[in-house]
Amino acid sequence: MKRKFKKIAIVFLIVFIAIQFYQPKQNKGYTIDIGENFANNYKVPPSVLNSLQKACYDCHSNDTKYLWYDYIQPARMFVESHIKNGKKELNFNEFASYSNRKQQSKLEAISKEVKSGDMPLSSYTLLHHDAKLTKEEKEAIIVWIDKTLNSTN
Length: 153
Ligand code: HEC
What we know:
The chain is mainly α. It has one domain. It contains eight helices and no strands. Helix 3 crosses helix 8 and helix 6 runs antiparallel to helix 8. The longest helix is centred in the N-terminal third of the chain and has 19 residues. It is elongated and about 70 Å long. It binds heme C (HEC). Heme C (HEC) binds next to helix 4, helix 5 and helix 6.
């Protein structure tokens, strides 16, 4: 029995080491077009921008701040797939390239996600404690989006 366990452990170790060699391209070094950048097209209060950057930009921008364990497989695969799917839905670095209608609906969606607490993903905040938004930070985002949407309508 003991020997069997040892064998299984060795197989796991080999697989674990082997998958470390699979390192997909990092979400870094993309040219960040400041013309299309969210922060350059909206009058975002610095505190609101700061909240969005710490809680959302890792999956919704062209520049992820990776932590050391983000590089360890199989976590790495989940991280990259979250970034890929997150950017497809919302990319703060390309925000101004969306049509006006899409920008408005994305602002509404951001407010909704923050209100419901669905974003940032809980699987992410589990390890990225700093990305959690306080009640005050959430409120500031929601209030600012309401104000912005009302002034553009
Ligand atoms: C760990 C990665 C991750 C983080 C961090 C993250 N998101 Fe997302 N987000 C995703 C993924 C993946 C999707 C697409 C699939 C889904 O909806 O679950 C998404 C989708 C969205 C959408 C699209 C929903 C829609 O119906 O249009 C919005 C809006 C959004 N996120 C806002 C935010 C906001 C705001 C934050 C920060 C407060 C945030 N996200 C943080 C991964 C993330």
